[in-house]
Amino acid sequence: MNLENLVRENIKRLAPYSSARQEFAGAAEIFLDANENSFGSPLAAGYNRYPDPLQLEIKEKIARLENLKTTEIFIGNGSDEAIDLLFRIFCEPDLDEAIICPPTYGMYKVSADINAVKTKEVFLTADFQLNVQYIRKAFNKWTKLLFICSPNNPTGNLMRRAAIIKIAKSFQGIVVVDEAYVHFSGEGSMINEIKNLPNLVVLQTFSKAWGLAGLRVGLAFANEEIIALFNKVKPPYNVSQIAQEAILEAFKNREKVEKTIAEIIFEREKLIKNLSEFSFVKKIYPTDANFVLVKTINAEKIYKFLLDEKIVVRNRNSVEMCAGCLRITVGTPEENAKLLISLEKFTTKTQRPQRF
Ligand SMILES: Cc1ncc(COP(=O)(O)O)c(C=O)c1O
What we know:
alpha/beta; 4-stranded antiparallel sheet
């Protein structure tokens, strides 16, 4: 892979914005360089100063944990920002292509569409694994990105690591492995592979296992050259001061994250067992995530019934390969119990003999 050949011409030529906080990041007494409001704000905490554009304190923590350099980490406004940046860095609008493997996370296609990039769909196999042969056939000289979601949303399963590595080795473009749900799986991350695979970008997020979806903080891991491109293209202050402070605070309580993951996995297994006892459940797909994909005999009816019960699940009935499916996030023990009671109600109602 030659990175030079992959990057868009305008991005190669781009003179990136240099923010005040990038030009001077040292200790001074008076900051009159960024047109901030020196008088403060209506908030006691202030927030009148721009945040660190490169979020170095957070990166140092993650780098230590993952045995990486800070320059191998990008932090974004959710991993959705990283997905969008990948298109903006690598894909020439109306010319280049990206491969996605449906059924999968919808933002890959939406981001591609926003950036006027054609997507080629290589559907997963019947057991929701990568179709390596067809993916390889789909590559051409315009294919710049391949998105692999593992564990996959909405199916829940991990993709085989050997298959990902095999594909990455034979592909001249960038292979993006989205690990939003990896912390709920038995398998480790592919982050350590970025040293061996120069075209690998691994995405993770604070929105799932860390429980911090409201902060909007996501991560991309890749070699220094690729991360430098992310930094070149991203908006100057893409992660807010509040978000950066909250992430640093969250690092002080990593035990809570570990505990929550264990609880979610425990609840997930209980939920699977309980759901499998309903007669309307045709299949529960194996999951490595914090949700389960459940194939039912009538997804629309169950979905609407649950809404009347004030419970929202994700209706995936109209998604190709997911007909009849509902995607159910694992909730707290109380939430799961309420869900099961409502589903019990649904069963009794639909099984009640008709009166003539
Ligand atoms: C597979 C996958 N990737 C990325 C995201 C987006 O994550 P973030 O909240 O970091 O933007 C989601 C959100 O549901 C997801 O399912």
